[in-house]
Amino acid sequence: KKVFMATFVKDLLDNVKAGIENDVTIKSEVVNLPKTVTTDPDLLYQILENLLSNAVKYSKDGKEVDFKLSMENNRLVATVSDKGIGIPKAEQGKLFDRFFRGGNVGIVEGTGLGLSIVKKCIEVLEGEISFESEAGKGTTFQVSVPVS
Ligand code: ATP
Ligand code: MG
């Protein structure tokens, strides 16, 4: 499907921002995006919505989440970076498992399904996902998806 990037990004950010329940702000940056790309917008939306809402809900009040979307070599590249609770090294291998929830999430609610859905969507789109995280410091996810 042909996806209008400006509309897609605006809808995504509006929806995520409307769901924020703490005092965290999202700073977004788009770099050399084409007007339209051809991909599955629903899968792309699932991926980015889950990563952004995780970054927000696992951050403490007053912090900022950075979102960057760019086009590099016919791939959409998204980076979602937070200064939140982080993911302990011992848990990083289980992150994409269904129903996995970290031991440090406290009262933050969730089902533990978000990232398993993200992984499935990435597979269908033949994209890639990686992350770096340090407990107590924050987390950065990067995804890239080939588009035409
Ligand atoms: P759901 O997304 O289904 O509402 P969830 O957020 O707990 O629930 P996932 O999105 O799959 O589930 O994330 C799994 C676990 O990974 C989380 O419970 C949390 O421990 C950890 N996690 C995910 N993203 C982050 C992040 N940005 N910072 C810190 N921990 C994270
Ligand atoms: Mg989640």
TrEMBL record:
Query: Which residues belong to any copy of the Histidine kinase domain?
Result: 1-148
Superkingdom of this entry's organism? Bacteria
**What's the name of the protein?**
histidine kinase
Q: What are the leading ranks of the lineage?
A: Bacteria, Pseudomonadati, Bacteroidota, Cytophagia, Cytophagales
Q: Which residues of the full protein are shown?
A: 244 to 391 of 391
